[in-house]
Structure formats: structure tokens, C-alpha cells
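Side project, low priority. Logging it here so it doesn't get lost.
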Amino acid sequence: MMRILLAEDAALLRDGLVALLERAGHEVVTAVPTATELLAEARTLLPADAVDLVLTDVRMPPGNADDGLRAALRIRQDHPSVPLVVLSQYVEQRYASTLLGLTGGEARPAGGAGLGYLLKDRVSRVHDFLDALEVVRGGGIVVDPQVVSALMRQESTALDRLSGREREVLELVSRGETNDQISARLHLSRGAVVKHISAVFDKLGLMESEGNRRVLAVIEFLRGQRPPG
């Protein structure tokens, strides 16, 4: 069971999300329609450890632009250990890049907390959506497959050292799939999947001392898929 702070301005979708999450056994601690209210609730609930995950829309009042995303970034800055999932209506690469820390400088998955960037269409695939929330709560990163596909033009990076199979495995990791799910999808043994992921860590220079290497590898993957310029 997760305690969730929800922000979504469309009343019908907000009510639908509340109903879906509660049917799945989670508790929606509060559901608000604006980014301003999201930040106000976060200031009260997060220091009290009353929320396990924040789920928010990107485009919200009061500005009806990227207010929800900016609120999410503020929450991540003030409470880096809180898992965070952002919902978007469309594939908006710069929003995903901003959330994941891919726009300039080094990516910093603060506190090892999970992050998710999902399209709203994913909500209709209830099992996938709920699985994504669990992955993020566990400290993973989940990026919608359509967003990953939109970032598939790359410049030369450390990813060039990966084999085709290793890149395939890493892309599935970026979608939030577990080792067992990757094993089934690619018809590989679980041991082979573990070996490929270990090779990815080694080739990307990710040491165990750096924390959640799975998260860092996904971020490196997404940095490499970013369109130039």
C-alpha cells in the first residue's frame, strides 16, 4: 500500500485516478487541482512522512503551462528522498530531460529516490501504470516507451561501447522492467540478463560506491539518446 499525493487539474481524470489507486489498495492522501496547492500540501505532508509517492500532471493551473513540472522539481529539491512520477499528455522531450536532470551538467538522482515520466495514455493500461508506480517507489526510473523512442537520435557517448544486446537490455531497464521481465521478453536466462546488466555498469564506468547503478545507467542511456543541440 502506498500513500500518494496527487495533483491533476482535470476533475474527471483526477477522480478516475483516485478511484483506480484506491481499488489497487493505495491511499490517496489528498488530490489537488493546481500546482500551488500541490506545493502547499507537500510542505505539510512530506516533512511529516505522510506520503510515499507524489504523482502530478505537467500542465496545470495557475499558469496552465509547465507549473506541475516546476512544482515537481521544487519538491525534488526540497525532499530528494521522495519518489516522484510526472504525467504528461504528450511526448515533451525537454520536460523529461529537465525532470531527469539531463539538461546541462551531470545528472544527479538525489537521494536515490525513484523518478517517473509517463504519458497519460499509460494510465489506461492499468497493470503497466501500477507496476510503474511500484518501480518508482522502489527507487527506479521509469520513462514512457514513447518518450524513449523520441530520444533515439544520439551523439557519440560512452554508450557506443555497449553491444547491441546490452543496449537492448538497458532500454528495457529504462522502461522500468525487472530482470525477470527482461528475461522473458528477450528469451534469455535470468543469469544472462544479470551478466548483460553487469557489463553495462562496467562499460559505463559505474562503480558500486556510486549508489543505485541501475538508476545511473538509465540516466546515462537517456543522456545519450538526447537529440543534439
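Brief comment: The domain at 1-145 is CATH 3.40.50.2300 (Rossmann fold).
Revisit when time allows.
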